[in-house]
Amino acid sequence: MSLFDLSGKVALITGSTKGIGRAIAERMAEAGAAVVISSRNQDACDEVANGINDKGGKAVPIACNINYREQLQDLVDKTREALGEIDVLVINAALNPYYGSSQEIPDEAFDKIMHANIGSAHRLCQMVMPGMAEKGGGSVIIVSSVAGLKGTDVIGAYGISKAADMQIARNLAVEWGPKNIRVNCIAPGLIKTEFARALWENPETYKRTVSKYPLRRIGEPDEIAGAAIYLASDSGSFTTGQTLVVDGGGTITG
User: Fold this and answer.
1) Contact, 176 vs 89, CB < 8 A?
2) DSSP-based three-state secondary structure for 8
3) CATH architecture of residue range(s) 2-195+220-249
4) Which listed residue, 116, 128, 159, 199, has the most CB atoms within 10 A of its CB?
């Protein structure tokens, strides 16, 4: 179990009040990390953090809108004030305000996706990684998507942003590896979350998707949390610059 132990680690997880981010935060707390719960809504952050603390874990709630650099910096600063330097950064918060063809996407929606999904990841890494290096190393995990690996006719801009996550991980793994910082992506397939509801709630989409999955089902948030703990802990100490696909086998058959 020591390979997966996060005791003494400080983990900042964005988008952690529901879905994949919440599962990662709760499981990292169970593994011994002190976690920061963050999303735009302070009440939601408080609720999740209280739940972790009530179970004997350690969680601090800090609201943040990833669209604003000053709020990202405030999130990082408050994390350091409350818990110390960050050992694990999980960039999970992302958005997708448009579902349809790339031809029809409004400029505003396209720009919003790129600014939030790519921009916030880039900026958070700039803010966090120098402190990680001074502490002796750390782990950055970006929650990407199989949408960044495959073509799509309904979430094209989102897919572009998720492909960019993978390149961010590769670039930063090269830059920061000598400082003992590992940077990786997780690319989930279809997971039962509110964020992906438009995909799994539609019977035709669901049927078409799981028919290509060897496991013949969609995933659960906890199944991504396990991958995140691997990448954050000593068990992933020689893994960097990679994209770990957790998709029930969908990409090998689709």
Assistant:
1) no
2) coil
3) 3-Layer(aba) Sandwich (3.40)
4) 128
CA pair distance 97, 232, nearest whole angstrom: 30
Q: What is the 3-state secondary structure (H, E, C) of 72-97?
A: HHHHHHHHHHHHCCCCEEEECCCCCC
Measured in whole angstroms, how far is the alpha carbon of residue 112 from the centre of its chain? Answer: 18
Report the chain's terminal Cα–Cα distance, integer Å.
Answer: 35
Q: State residue 142 phi and psi, 5-degree precision.
A: -105, 125
User: Which residues carry out catalysis?
Assistant: 158
Lookup result for tokens 């990409």: 251
Instruction: Give tens-digit pLDDT for 155-165.
Output: 999 999 999 99
Nearest to 93 by CA among 154, 185, 169, 14: 14
* Of 155, 151, 175, 71, nearest in space to 110 by CA: 155
- Is residue 157 within 8 Å of 102, Cβ to Cβ? yes
Q: Pick from 117, 115, 111, 114: which is nearest to 94 by CA?
A: 117
Q: What is the rounded (10 degree) CA torsion for 79, 85, 90, 92?
A: 20
| Strands of 243-246's sheet in order across | 58-61, 34-38, 10-14, 88-91, 138-143, 181-188, 243-246
- CB neighbours of residue 115 within 10 Å: 14
Q: Which residues pair with 245 in a beta bridge?
A: 187
- Determine the Cα–Cα distance for residues 189 and 209; give it in Å rounded to an integer: 10
Q: Given this model, what pLDDT does residue 254 score?
A: 64
Mean pLDDT of 91-109: 96
Question: Is 142's pLDDT higher than 70?
Answer: yes
Residue-range domain boundaries for the chain = 2-195+220-249
Structure tokens belonging to residue 87: 């050992």
